[in-house]
Design a protein that fits this description.
- The protein has 252 residues and is an alpha+beta fold.
- It has a 4-stranded mixed beta sheet.
- The protein is globular, with a radius of gyration of 17 Å.
- The protein starts with a helix and ends with a strand.
Length: 252
């Protein structure tokens, strides 16, 4: 049944015209052009080495994509519904107005990419995600170098997903919410060793292999919630603690 749903979702993704949706109600923030430090020399092996990356300016969603925002795409027959409408904490999650402002979950990689394309954007690269999360001063978390339940929704805090509008003091240097905890976020990038390079094949959207997820979730601890931590999932994987946000290029 799950395989049939995935195949049906791919049919929508491949056959629906690439029509750009007008969604002025989805705020984005501009991340300026410039250099930042990606990775860490003291973290896990796949976070090493720390290295300098220069990125062009880009826009990043201020919030994780919500159930309400994703449902607009589903109702337009441009997106396949989430693989499950329930979560481990809420039997009736997607489509329930109570959770309209909560992050959409149970989305596999191509569904996330399809939604962002429909909106006129794309999934962020792993480098874009990390810069939007930690800025240019090498901090561990979006707000600084220590973590508590006032800043983010990670293991032991809310015990379930939370509204994307929560945790005002947990914003990144650019005003992006929820980049630590709540739900994992898909990025465009294939999981490959550092140093990061946008031209070594890891940004090939048609390539096979595991894709990166970032930011940790409410099910995981402080280490996974850091702006440096990397994890990988097969692109057909989905879970009730995995969602996404969109990015787009900034015009000069």
């Amino acid at each position: 049944m799950a395989l049939f749903a995935i195949l049906a979702g791919w049919f929508i993704i491949l056959n629906f015209p690439h029509k750009v949706a007008l969604t002025p109600d989805v705020p984005m923030v501009r991340v300026p052009v410039g250099e930042f430090t990606m990775g860490s020399d003291t973290g896990n092996a796949d976070e090493k080495p720390a290295h300098k990356i220069v990125l062009n300016s880009f826009y990043m969603d201020k919030y994780e994509v919500t159930n309400a925002a994703y449902k607009v795409c589903v109702d337009a027959s441009a997106c396949a519904p989430p693989m499950k409408v329930s979560s481990s904490t809420h039997q009736d999650y997607f489509g329930n107005l109570t959770f309209a402002n909560y992050p959409v979950v149970n989305i596999y990689w191509a569904q996330a990419e399809r939604y962002c394309l429909w909106r006129g954007g794309r999934l962020p690269t792993e480098a874009e995600w990390e810069k939007a999360a930690r800025g240019v001063d090498g901090r561990i978390y979006p707000w600084g170098n220590t973590i508590d339940c006032k800043h983010a929704n990670y293991l032991g805090c809310v015990e379930g997903p939370s509204s994307v509008f929560d945790f005002d003091i947990g914003q990144s240097p650019y005003g992006v919410y929820g980049m630590a905890g709540n739900v994992w976020e898909w990025v465009s990038t294939l999981y490959k060793p550092y140093p990061y390079s946008a031209i070594d094949g890891r940004e090939d959207l048609n390539a096979n292999g595991a894709r990166v997820v970032r930011g940790g979730s409410w099910k995981l601890g402080a280490t996974e919630a850091s702006s440096i931590y990397r994890a990988k999932l097969l692109p057909i994987a989905y879970d009730d603690n995995t969602g996404f946000r969109c990015a787009r290029d900034a015009t000069p």
